[in-house]
Design a protein that fits this description.
heterodimer; A: 218 residues; mainly alpha; two-stranded antiparallel sheet; 2% strand; globular; B: alpha+beta; two-stranded parallel ribbon
Chain lengths: 218, 228
């Protein structure tokens, strides 16, 4: 035990976590199998709602919540749902949590609900959530499914935030609505527009893949 | 043959199970939605009322004070003190000197995706629509939702003509939606290319709502004065 904690100090937090197989389920979504930067899933909200850091964070957390709850339910019902109707059941479960999220966001703030607009309802068709239900939660225990959902959900939120922060910073000169530059700053309007979403995503993918390649070489 | 047999038996055996699973999940999901709906209802109503309040100040330029009026059976207006959720409410806005600067009216109608709820400001002095705000819409992001953001479209509603005929029974020229760039008269609503249906719906909603409300409000415009 003491040996292990020493090891933790020497190799760093993330490395030590990797040694546990169960925490690996959590870490993989954050980094190695990041839903946006590695699996390139759920592109519709990623490109559309990432125009400000706040929207990106809210959208990411809403998706993470739906993912977590549907993973828990799918995993706990995995022996009860017959194979033939599994997709229909998953969609029903996901749609329920999306509706719940919709109400909760309205209860939190009407303005936030308005700025996320139709994209909240569109979480239903986010392929990330269905793919985790089908590929992971339906085959694993509840504990593992929770870790998987948390990892993937936070990984998705992190990725959305990366895009949202960059786009808001250049497109609006602010972060979370706080102006960061002097009045002389000329906003890059293109970053707020849909095209900016593609540019920013491409640059992030480039950085991620370059980092991965470098790691493979060493 | 043998294979078909097996498939047939397995599917017939599990059909009760399938039904059980689907119905069971359906009931559970319905219960969860109902519970959330009940739990968030009052809070959402409160938030919406607050948003409406903010929107009223947006559609009537220069207003600092608000009063709510209700339409009664005699086609005139009564003040109401408590906030009742009713379709026949209008909101009067006043400036610092208690002068009426406009009326805010809520309207709704079918858009491209779902019902669009709007609020517009009407100034009885100039007989013009002076402000416009989308309260609720589920129009397609990037296309239909331009009705909320497109500056050219929104500029339609800074001075949209709704002058009444001589005997005050109807609007002289009803609001009509036209194609983008085709606006020639002050009562036309210039549309948005790429959001034809959504922008036309706004024109139609306004036209329907103004033909009902504007004559009523104009006839009763003195009853909204504070010093009386």
């Amino acid at each position: 035990m003491s040996n292990h904690s020493e090891n933790k100090n020497s190799t760093g937090f993330f490395e030590s976590l990797k040694e546990h197989p169960s925490t690996d389920e959590f870490i993989k979504g954050l980094w190695r199998d990041n839903p946006v930067f590695v699996q390139v899933l759920g592109m519709c909200p990623v490109l559309a709602v990432s125009n400000t850091a706040e929207n990106a964070l809210a959208m990411g957390l809403a998706t993470a919540f739906v993912l977590l709850m549907s993973n828990i339910l799918v995993s706990s019902l995995r022996n009860f749902i017959p194979k033939q109707v599994r997709i229909a059941s998953y969609i029903l479960i996901i749609a329920t949590f999306v509706t719940i999220t919709d109400y909760v966001i309205q209860a939190i703030s009407v303005d936030l609900h308005k700025s996320l607009g139709a994209f909240i309802s569109l979480i239903v068709v986010n392929c990330l959530i269905l793919s985790r239900a089908e590929a992971f939660a339906s085959k694993n225990t509840i504990g593992k499914s929770i870790l998987d959902a948390l990892g993937m959900g936070l990984g998705f939120t992190f990725a959305l935030f990366c895009l949202g922060a960059v786009r808001e910073l250049f497109g609006n000169g602010s972060l979370f609505g706080l102006s960061l530059f002097s009045d002389n700053f000329q906003e890059w309007i293109v970053m707020i527009l849909p095209a900016g979403g593609f540019f920013t995503l491409a640059i992030w993918l480039l950085i991620f893949n370059a980092a991965k390649e470098r790691k493979l070489k060493t | 043959m043998n294979q078909t047999q097996t498939i047939h038996t397995t599917s017939s055996v599990s059909s009760t199970k399938m039904l059980q699973a689907m119905v069971g999940i359906g009931i559970m999901c319905a219960l969860m939605i109902v519970l959330t709906f009940e739990g968030t209802k009052s809070r959402i109503a409160h938030n919406k009322a607050e948003a409406l309040e903010k929107a009223i100040f947006k559609v009537i330029p220069g207003m600092v004070k608000k009063r709510t009026y209700q339409l009664n059976e005699n086609s005139s207006f009564d003040t109401i003190r408590s906030e009742i959720k009713d379709a026949s409410l209008v909101y009067a806005g006043y400036d610092e000197n208690d002068q009426l600067v406009g009326m805010a009216i809520e309207a709704s109608g079918i858009g491209f995706a779902d019902i669009i709820r709007i609020l517009y400001g009407y100034n009885p002095e100039t007989q013009k629509i002076v402000g416009f705000y989308v309260l609720e819409s589920k129009e397609t992001p990037g296309l239909g939702d331009k009705i909320e953001k497109d500056e050219n479209f929104l500029s339609n509603f800074s001075a949209l003509d709704v002058t009444l005929v001589e005997d005050l029974s109807a609007i002289k020229n009803e609001i009509i939606p036209v194609k983008q760039g085709a606006k020639e008269n002050p009562w036309e609503v210039d549309g948005i290319t790429g959001a034809t249906i959504s922008s036309r719906s706004i024109g139609n909603i306004l036209s329907e709502s103004t033909s009902h409300w504007v004559p009523l409000i104009y006839k009763n415009r003195r009853s909204f004065d504070i010093k009386k």
